[in-house]
Write the structure tokens for this entry.
Amino acid sequence: MARPSWDEYFMAITGQVAERATCTRRHIGAILVKDKRILATGYNGTPAGLAHCDEMGCLREQRDIPSGTQHELCRGIHAEQNAVIQAARHGIAIDGATVYCTHQPCVLCAKILINAGVQEVVYREAYPDPLAEAMLSEAGIIPRQFVTESG
């Protein structure tokens, strides 16, 4: 068995992190990495101590809110946001880090990642958000879609 590349290794872990998600629509994971070390992880779900969406239902589905719109109308926190929050709670500096995500960040997460000093975004699945892409580009961060070494 071939040894995985760093991208393959970190993306595999990101997939494991996503399995903790409690969102009923999609399971998303993110990890912050610097110098080939994992600094923090995050997955999408409600704030700590609150009922999970997989227990009480999805507010967005109940209100018929289309995907990619009105992000604020959701009980959950995005995976990238949770990773940044976890780093902050534990006093871990993430300036200059890379974020590995199961999905391309939305505009809310892009703004947080920019201000947190994240230098690179690597994602597996596209989640096209033109404003997020434009803001990351303006900040000098070009998101890179992960493609396995085998194709």
About this structure: Residues 6-18 form the longest helix (13 residues). The two ends are 17 Å apart (CA to CA). The chain has a mean pLDDT of 93.
